[in-house]
Amino acid sequence: MRILLAEDDPMIAGVLVQRLVEDAHVVEHVDDGPTAAAFAPLGDFDVVLLDLGLPGLDGMDVLRSLRAEEAGPAVIVMTARGRLEEKVAGLDAGADDYLVKPFAYEELRARLRAVGRRGTAHTSAVLRAGGITLDETAVTATGPGGEVVPLTRRELALLRALMMHPGMVLSRGQLEAQVYEGEVEIESNAIDFLIRRLRGKLGPESIRNVRGLGWTIPRLP
């Protein structure tokens, strides 16, 4: 996902940016309300993680400005304002979810997955990058040569992670987070095995290795 994090606490923001990037999300961070309100509609974001106590412009006003747009990103509010009436006000103002601080990162991760599932109900399930077409509904991929091949669940998850960030190098840890989603015992060569299988189906140059860093699918063939 492409995520805008609007959070003015540098310690919280630093931890969240690190964890989100480890989970293979693309993250932009802003630390005040006016910048969040101006930047969110322009960045093609999937989700805005919105603190309500932002300087310059209250997060509720940022939320209302986002919902004034005909189409916009999902918004997950993250705030210390935890009274029932405050939660109701945030949801009524258009928040897709409301998370009270302090919270465990695993809970935020689950909320992001839920928002992502709701988003795919009305967006295309087809991704294209590097000469590859991924059809998530049919669970198939089409390689540069035009041959349609079936995918396993984990092959689909790995290919989706790479194709959502074309040109970006994803590390082993980032891919494991996307493919195995919290599983504790992961074989050390599990990602290598999946990539070998995908290269066998889509071509040896379909997924490129950047030595010492990870793997990528180019934006163009």
Detailed description of the structure:
With 221 residues, the chain is of the alpha/beta class. Helices cover 39% and strands 20% of the residues. The chain is built from 8 helices and 11 strands. The protein has a 5-stranded parallel sheet with strand order 2-1-3-4-5, sandwiched between helices. Helix 6 packs across helix 8. It is elongated, with a radius of gyration of 19 Å.
Model regions low in confidence, pLDDT < 50 over at least 5 residues: 120-124
Q: Quickly give the CATH architecture of the largest domain.
A: 3-Layer(aba) Sandwich
Morphology = elongated
The CATH H-level superfamily of the largest domain is: Response regulator
CATH topology of the largest domain: Rossmann fold
Category from helices, strands and their pairing? alpha/beta
Overall pLDDT metric: 87
Main sheet characteristics: 5 strands, parallel
Strand numbers in spatial order across the main sheet:
2-1-3-4-5
CATH domain class of the largest domain: Alpha Beta
What is the count of structural domains? 2
Distance between the termini: 22 Å
SSE string, helices as H and strands as E: EHEHEHEHEHEEEEHHHEE
Strand content: 15-25%
Number of strands: 11
Number of helical stretches of at least 4 residues: 8
Helix share, percent? 25-40%
Nearest-angstrom radius of gyration? 19 Å
